[in-house]
TrEMBL record, chains A, B:
SUPFAM superfamilies: Winged helix' DNA-binding domain. This is Transcriptional regulator. Keywords: DNA-binding, Transcription, Transcription regulation. PROSITE patterns: HTH_ARSR_1 (PS00846), HTH_ARSR_2 (PS50987).
């Protein structure tokens, strides 16, 4: 499921270009697909999990290192991780006892591209907004 | 409320730089703030409304031009527009009979920056992902 969503999300982005949210009206199918990914990001625990995974040196995090950062049960954390994975934002691999998670940067790159205005270079765009 | 959220969202971005989601673990407060904005985007009708508003030549759209694009009641459309406005993604102005909506590009710029990997230039990043 995550692979499928990722392909749909990335269908316009093979050349790195970004006909996105801000340049033309979204069609219904694409809006449905994109909304699922944004919905996965629309929760503070999932955002914190994603940032912990994405910012980890080495690129992956053992679930055993994620759970202690939250005052939540292991099943709750696992549920949030599953939603991030279904949205194509992270991937996982079981090795021995533990599951290891890593960012799928293709998806966050696509979201960033979709949210970028045509001609706007982000590091220089502050102050240029109307 | 939208103004307040916008300020919090933009607090790291005054110089256009982007210590974001992918570079360091988010703290709880910032995760709460960001999650509200992503949650506003986590609905296909709201994404379509936002793209209709953002892509309109001239920069603003009358609510009277938005409603016919959807098979939904005016109150439902107004509710979705209210949520986008509360998230700091759009602003509105009443002139005469109608309300006109426009994108707040500062917010989408910030989201794009937050989702951009350090050193990743979006137009060149395709294929460079691990």
């Amino acid at each position: 499921m995550s692979k499928q969503q990722l392909e749909v999300l990335g269908r316009d982005g093979a050349d790195g270009c970004c006909p996105g949210l801000l340049t033309a009206p979204l069609d219904e199918d694409r809006a449905e697909t994109l909304a699922k990914v944004f919905k996965a990001l629309g929760d503070p625990v999932r955002l914190r999990l994603l940032s912990l995974i994405a910012s980890r040196a080495g690129g992956e995090v053992c679930v055993c290192d994620l759970t202690p950062a939250f005052d939540l049960s292991q099943p709750t954390i696992s549920h949030h991780l599953k939603l991030l994975k279904q949205a194509g934002l992270i991937d996982s691999e079981r090795r021995g006892t533990w599951v290891y998670y890593r960012l799928l940067p293709e998806t966050t790159d696509q979201l960033a591209a979709i949210l970028t205005r045509p001609g706007a270079l982000l590091p220089e765009s502050a102050g240029a907004a109307s």
